[in-house]
Design brief:
By secondary structure, the protein is of the alpha/beta class. The protein has a single domain, classed as Rossmann fold, CATH 3.40.50.850. α6 packs parallel to α7.
Amino acid sequence: MNKNKLTKIFSCVALLFYLSSCASGTTKIEYYQNPQKVLLVIDMQIDYLTEDGKYPIEISQMDNLITTVNEIINEFHNNDIKVIYFRNIFTNTFLRTLFNFPVIEGTPGVEIDSRINIVSEYIFDKYSGSAFSNIEFEDFLIQNQINELYLVGVAADECVYDTALAGLKRGYIVNFYANAVGAKNDRNIDRAISRINEKGANIVYH
C-alpha cells in the first residue's frame, strides 16, 4: 500500500473519530463559581399517564407517581430551584400513525398531563430519549451555571435513565428519585435504579 493511500485512510479514520465525538455531545461541564440545582420533570404526558393512553405505564403506579412528582415540584419551586419540564415527541409519519405510536406530534397525547403542576415556563421538547438531545436545554444549563440534576418522570428505564446517563457523562451530579419514576412494570424501575446507581448516580427518595 503506497503512502498516499495510507494518508487517506488515516485522514478518514481521524474524521470519523472527530464526527463521532461531535455527535456524542459529551463535553464535560466547567467549574462554576455559583453552581445551581435543577429539577427535571421528564415526559409526564397524557399518553403515558392515562389508562387509555397509547403507551401507559403500569396503571397501579399512576396516581402515586403524579402525587409524588407534584410534591417534589412544589418543594423545589418553594425553595427557588428551577423546575424544567420535557415533552417526548415523535414526528407524525405514516408508519407511526399506522402503528398507533404514542406522543405523536400534533395529537392530544403529547401534552403534559393536566394533573401535573406547572410552576415555570421552562418546557422543552425532545425527539430522542435523552433530554440532552435538545441543544437549547443544554445551553440553558450552562447559561444558568447548573451542575446538579434531580430527575423524576417516565420512563425510569428509558428517557429518565437516558437523561441521567447523559448527565453523568457530562460531569453533572445526578440524583435519581427512586420513588418518583414510572415504567411499564416495577421490575423495570428496579433494574433502572440499580444500573444508574452503578454508573454513578445518587439514588434519592422523597
